[in-house]
Structure formats: C-alpha cells, structure tokens
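[scheduler] slot 2 assigned
[scheduler] job type: sequence-to-structure, two independent chains
[scheduler] chain ordering preserved from manifest
[runner] begin chain α
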Amino acid sequence: MAEMTIREAEESDLKGLLELYTHLGDNPVPEINESLVELWHKILSSESQRVIVGLAGGELVSSCVLIVVRNLSHGQRPYAFVENVVTHAAYRNRGCATRVLDYARDAAVREGCYKIMLLTGSKRESTLRFYEKAGYDRSIKTGFIQPL
C-alpha cells in the first residue's frame, strides 16, 4: 500500500470522516449544520476523546475513536475504549485499521492506561480474528449493551 499517514483528526476532517462513517453500515452522511459543527468542535477539544484518522493519498480511509476514562481504582490509572473502527471498503485488508488501532494503543499507553477495551457489533469470525490479531482478547471479559 502507498504511504499512509496516521494522526489525530483536525477540524478540516469532518466531511471526510462523515463520508467514511457510511462504511460502518446504515449510516448516511448527515447535513453539516451549526449543531453538527458545534459537536465536532466539542469532540476535538475534549481531553478524553480522540478521533484517530488514517490518510492515503490525502484521502481519509480509516479511523477509530479513543476515549480515555479517568479512574479511582487500579492505582488510579485510567482505562480506554476504542469505538467506531472503520476502513473505507476500497482500502480494507491493507493494514489501514491495524495502523489506526496501533496509534490508539500507543496513545493509551502514553496516558498510563492499564487496559484498552473495544466493542464491535460484528459477529463475523474474520472481524473477530482481526481484533484478536490486533491484541484484543475476547475471553477476558463479557460485554453487555443496553440500548437507550
């Protein structure tokens, strides 16, 4: 694969990120309005949330969100969540998501996190094996979701 740049999202990445999120499934591109831009600014200015993006040829092709949660247990070390892992369909199986997840893991280590968790809605064994290959272990804990 051609050169890929991994970095934290910038203000100008909003449109590309929203288009990339259409590859998460039934997720249409929303109208970019004042409310959405305000939300984007809150995300970008958050101390605990990072949107990590991978670019190839200047195009946003992969991303994930890293959330660091401050914590009073485990020696007061924080823990992290990874969500919204996505790669553009045309760039899958090229190592893009692995690079983005590696960046997220390294950021969590720099923050002193004692663990990083990832949830996926996918039941496909190939997806689950991909996350295991990236270092996630599905046998350590059981995740539950309560839709709101």
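[runner] end chain α
[runner] begin chain β
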Amino acid sequence: MRKFYFNLLYLFTEPPWDTGVSPPELHDFIEKHAPGRTIDIGCGTGTNVIALARAGWQVTGVDFAPHAVKIAKRKVKKAGIQAEILERDAAQLNGISGPFDLALDIGCFHGMRDRKADYLSELERVLAPGGFWLMYGFFKSDPASNDPGLVEADLELIPASMTQVWRQDGLEREERPSAWFLYQKTK
C-alpha cells in the first residue's frame, strides 16, 4: 500500500521532500571525501544521484516507487551522466552487492516503520569496511504512533559495526525535530 501511495505522489504531485536541491550536508561530505562507489537509498527523482555523479562518484540510486525511478532515469539521461537507477525496496536490495564507500539516505530509514532491522541488515551487507552512511531523518512527535519518523530507540538498532562520527540536530520544514547522522562502518 505504501508503494502505491508513494507512486501516486510522484505521478500526480511534487512531493514536498523532492526539492530538486542537494543539501549542504551532502556537499560538505563530497568536498571532504574522495569519490568512490555510492548508493543513494530512496533516491526519489535522482537529484542527489546527479550531484554525486558530477562530483566523480560511481552512483547507484534505488527507490521503490516506479514513477520516481522513471523520472530519475530521465533526469540522469538529460544531465548526461552515468548512474544506475533501480527499482528496489530498501529492506531488500536484491541484486545489489556493493561494496559501497557511501550510502546516502535522505528520509528513507525513518519511513521504514517495522522494517528498520531489515534495512540495517542490507545496509551493513552492502557498505564497505570504512564506508560511510550519511542519513537524514525526522523524529516522531509521538513515539507510540505508527507514523513515519525516528525514535531514539531506532538508533539503538544500528549495528555495532557502525560508529557514529557526528550528529547534527535541527528542525524539519514543519518545525519537527530532525537530525543528520554520519556513521562509519568499522568492520
């Protein structure tokens, strides 16, 4: 049902999270790290795929909404860059082996609800030792709700092989608490 809902959003509207602008946190990461292989988990229409590819990264973008994938493929072709765009579920990255030096996630993990453990297992599988996970998410206002969003307990699910490098708390569009996280896989 969620896949259907997201596909409809991309088909008939411009989702509020799809701003067409890569965030400064991603640009800062790109400036401080040599290009390598990256996966953009929940790539949407490919804005960050294009930014990474233009910075010299070998990029794979994945999203579970078919229409978002279709738009991303068009945008990549129009930009004249090389990137692989695939329709995949973030908790089942079938056919994707990595290893990736960077996994980018802007708003996917916080929407996984009861599938966060599966997502993290796939992330750990495809991320190279020494690789980074740059993740943005917003927090739930009511931790008991079934709405999308993070709760502090979600962060306890992150495997021991992942060390938090930094966390930057802030506020999302609607004044809801959010944070950027950078983790590094140590094993």
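[runner] end chain β
[qc] chain β: Residues 2-185 form a domain with the Rossmann fold fold (CATH 3.40.50.150).
[scheduler] slot 2 released
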